[in-house]
Amino acid sequence: MADLVSATAASVDGVVKVAPEPGHPAATYGPGRMVAGVQVQRRRDSDRIAVHVVAALGAHLPSLAEDVRGAVGDALAAHLPDQTSWTIDVHISQVVAPQDPGPSRHKGAP
Predict the structure, then answer these.
(1) pLDDT by residue for the chain (110 residues), tens digit each?
(2) What are the two backbone dihedrals, phi and then psi, of residue 55, each rounded to the nearest 5 degrees?
(3) Could you tell me the residue range of the domain that residue 61 belongs to?
(4) 57, 14 in Cβ contact below 8 A?
(5) Which of 51, 54, 67, 100 shows a CA-CA span of 20 to 30 A to 38?
């Protein structure tokens, strides 16, 4: 489930990547691996899913969160038809310029 949530959220326009907020790890752990940026809490009546995304600068954040929530909900419904109840929380971990090259590495740069 966490892999599906991560891949779906990452495919939404305006999402740079799925990643937890720096200093606040959020992940789902499985046998020998983890899915960073997605937390799944299994409950008897309803699962709670938190997905942490890095947004592109200029994205309208409330709309982006709603788009991620809708896409993840649709993907879960398509892949888990027997489960009908979950809560999806979308957290904007960071906002970054798309394809930001990072600090300059040119000689003489500060």
Answers:
(1) 899 999 999 999 999 999 988 777 888 887 888 899 999 988 877 889 999 999 999 999 999 999 999 999 999 999 988 877 889 999 999 999 966 544 444 444 44
(2) -95, 150
(3) 2-96
(4) no
(5) 100
Rg of the chain, C-alpha, whole Å: 16
DSSP letter (8 states) at residue 39: E
How many angstroms separate the CA atoms of 12 and 35, rounded?
18
Nearest to 46 by CA among 87, 79, 80: 87
> Is 84 a member of any domain?
yes
Extract the tokens encoding 76: 């879960």
Question: Residues near 86 by Cβ (< 8 Å), separated by ≥ 6?
Answer: 46, 47, 48, 49, 73, 76
Per the structure, the count of domains in the chain is 1
